[in-house]
Amino acid sequence: MNDKYLYSPWRLDYIMAEKEEGCILCDKEPECDYLRLVVYRSQHCYVMLNRYPYNNGHVMCIPYPHVSSLADLTEEALTDVILTLQKCEKVLKHVYDCDGINMGLNLGSTAGAGIAEHLHFHIIPRWVGDSSFMTIVSGERIIPEAFERTFRLLHDAFACWGNKGDS
User: Fold this and answer.
1) Which residue among the candidates 44, 58, 120, 155 is catalytic per the annotation?
2) Interior angle at CA 59, CA 56 and CA 61, nearest 5
3) Which in 5, 25, 69, 81 has the greatest CB count within 10 A?
4) What is the pLDDT of residues 119-146, one digit of tens each?
5) What's the burial of 36, exposed, middle or buried (CB within 10 Å: 0-12/13-18/19+)?
6) Could you confirm whether 120 is annotated as catalytic?
7) Closest by alpha carbon to 108, among 118, 99, 100?
């Protein structure tokens, strides 16, 4: 029997909260950006913090249209998503000085998509020796940075130079 316990009391708020109807990734009004943890918006997609991150700075890039496949995006939207992923890379390297970045897309629940009906990319900063192995080995995650700080750092970085080309 395992006598070790890891507590995450912040999850109780999520468990007990009333659940949204409809798709949680479908865009809401920009006035809700802070509450939804949206740090950046482009013409065809937005970037938000993952509420259950694998690492500090874990964000998702989400196209506005409610589609489940890359094939369902217009060429213009697909181009904007890729350019936004590039901005995410630049911003995360600037803000977190990370050694690498995982970018991932799971198409369909069989492929591991938790929300298969709305296409989204995960962008996760990585460091040599980081603790992300904990998720694989024990199903636990260690996130030493508060969401409020992560939000402020990434929101400000996108606002300051996220629209610049090669900053």
Assistant:
1) 120
2) 170
3) 81
4) 999 999 998 877 655 454 455 556 667 7
5) middle
6) yes
7) 118
Distances (CA, A) of 55 to 3, 8, 50, 121, 154: 26, 15, 10, 15, 14
Beta-sheet strands, E only, within 22-130: 38-41, 45-49, 59-63, 100-105, 121-126
Percent of the chain with pLDDT over 90: 46
Which position has the token pair 């006035």? 31
Pairwise CA distance, residues 31 & 136, whole Å: 37
Among 50, 15, 55, 49, smallest CA distance to 135 is for 55
Q: Could you report the per-residue pLDDT of 10-42, keeping only the tens digit for each?
A: 556 656 767 667 898 997 788 889 989 999 999
Measured CA to CA, the distance from residue 125 to residue 101 in angstroms comes to 4
Report field, pTM of the whole predicted structure over 0.85:
no
Q: What does the DSSP 8-state code read for residue 142?
A: -
DSSP letter for 119, please: -
3-class DSSP state of 36: helix
The pLDDT value given to residue 131: 63
